[in-house]
Design brief:
- Keywords: Hydrolase, Metalloprotease, Protease.
- It holds the Pfam family PmbA_TldD_1st.
- This is TldD/PmbA family protein.
- It comes from Photobacterium atrarenae.
- Belongs to the peptidase U62 family.
- By secondary structure, the chain is α+β, with helices and mostly antiparallel strands.
- It contains nine helices and 24 strands.
- α3 runs parallel beside α4.
- The protein is globular.
- The termini are far apart.
Length: 461
């Protein structure tokens, strides 16, 4: 996408102006989406974006700018504007740019650039819509959306690195709305993968429609959740959003380097119950949060964050490594060429344990089974969180008795880690988007079901 000779000239220019490190991030991004509402196709959108990000290091200072031009003089102009903020002339040259190669773990069969069928996507959405509406006459609305993206990146830097990657993303979102008089409730699922439109072979349109409709119907007649401190079983898959938001961000050098994380000085210490082990893994085949290389050009890896309750690693980007002394973990990520990279999560999850879901529920005299988590808010630095439960049930005398609505879980990430006493075997992952200082990036959350011995539950009662 960018002539290597041009890249070398721009990087040499940056070093001549005094930069300790220089990088060019080149991106070509293509997207296509189709949306169905009320049984009809409402929107069909597509677009292409291209740009080049220029990043310079002056000590621990990061300077960043971008342009949509590949012209050498324009790139040098952007570089000069950045360097002018901390200019110190020196004579230096980048190493020879050598194209790096690696094994692609995520081969794509039906990429967007080869014209994946719009008709097939529309047919999938119509099938999902019909299945949702057939679940019950109280399903008043269905909204379906399919997004497919293709992101080509090329990275050059002053260490001599030249590397590129093409990432194929496909995600399906389905929402069912149930209504009975003035009462209304929703069901939602949004599976995604690092793959082309062949992702549809892993999904069953009718099962997806039934699933979101069933969620909506369960909540429609549910009773209000009781309030107070009690044991809670958090379901598998998207239940991992609590660890991601309330703990995962605290393990990124984005916060650790600033000592804004409560875990910044806890390396090697017990920060969780010994039954808890957690991982951030970018290598998992075709998972939504996976990458071959991060957005700094480093090959991705599996990073053991917590092992048997002990903090064993942080997620480290290049600048985070310089500031903290920890080795980079292939975790430097960004939304696009418009953002400088920072340490970010990939596929982040609590590993399976040896308890069964039945055993967990059987151990609770009175509490909540949070089968499906929803969204929430988190306080950066402390991990204080407030998360809604999308699908919840009351547990009494070791048995699930009735569905609940308006359930909210309130605590802090560090506290919850120590309150987990049982970890299940039913491991699952779920796709999501994560926002931070380097924009919004695809990430996967996950866990088996787990038991939290004591957590504050907010409810309608």
């Amino acid at each position: 996408m960018l002539n290597p000779a041009t890249a070398k000239a721009v990087i040499d220019h940056a070093l001549f102006l005094g930069a300790d490190f220089a990088e060019l991030f080149v991106e070509h991004h293509q997207s296509s989406s189709v949306e169905l509402i009320s049984g009809d196709i409402d929107k069909v959108n597509s677009g292409i974006d291209f740009g080049i990000g220029v990043r310079l290091f002056f000590g621990h200072k990061v300077l960043y700018g971008y342009t949509n031009s590949t012209d050498e003089e324009e790139l040098k102009r952007v570089t000069s504007l950045l360097a002018a903020k901390d200019k110190r002339d020196q004579i230096a040259q980048a190493g020879t740019l050598n194209l790096s190669r690696y094994t692609d773990r995520h081969q794509c069969q039906l990429p967007l650039s080869q014209g994946a069928s719009l008709d097939a996507k529309i047919a999938f959405l119509r099938d999902t819509d019909q299945a949702a509406r057939s679940e019950d006459e109280k399903i008043s609305q269905f909204i379906g959306r399919i997004l497919q993206r293709e992101q080509q990146v090329e990275i050059f830097n002053s260490t001599g690195l030249h590397i590129g990657d093409t990432r194929h993303y496909t995600r399906v979102a389905a929402t069912a709305i149930a209504q009975d008089g003035n009462e209304q409730s929703t069901g939602f699922e949004a599976p995604g993968a690092l793959t082309g439109w062949e992702f549809n072979t892993r999904l069953n349109a009718r099962e997806l429609g039934h699933q979101v409709a069933r969620q909506a119907m369960v909540k429609l007649t549910a009773e209000h959740c009781p309030s107070g401190e009690m044991p809670v079983i958090i379901g598998n898959g998207f239940g991992g959003v609590i660890f991601h938001e309330a703990c995962g961000h605290l393990l990124e050098t984005t916060s650790v380097a600033k000592k804004a994380s409560v875990f910044h000085d806890k390396m090697g210490e017990m920060i969780a119950n010994p039954v808890v082990s957690a991982v951030d893994d970018g290598t998992m085949s075709h998972e939504w949060g996976s990458i071959n290389i991060d957005d700094e050009g480093m090959e991705t890896q599996r990073t053991q964050l917590i092992k048997d309750g002990k903090l064993t690693s942080f997620m480290v980007d290049q600048m985070g490594g310089l500031k903290t002394g920890y080795a980079p973990t292939g975790s430097g990520r960004r939304e696009s060429y418009k953002y400088a990279p920072t340490s970010r999560m990939r596929n982040t999850f609590i590993e399976p344990g040896d308890s069964s879901l039945d055993a967990m529920i059987g151990s609770v005299e009175r509490g909540i089974y949070a089968k499906k988590m929803g969204g929430g808010s988190v306080q950066p630095g402390t991990g204080e969180f407030n998360f809604a439960v999308q699908e919840a049930y009351l547990v009494e005398n070791g048995k699930i008795t009735k569905p609940l609505k308006s359930a909210t879980l309130i605590s802090t990430g560090p506290k919850v880690l120590k309150e987990i006493s049982m970890v299940g075997q039913d491991f699952a992952l779920a796709a999501g988007m994560c926002g931070s200082v380097s924009g919004s990036v695809p990430t996967t959350v996950g866990q088996p079901a787990l038991k939290v011995d004591n957590i504050l539950v907010g409810g309608g009662n």
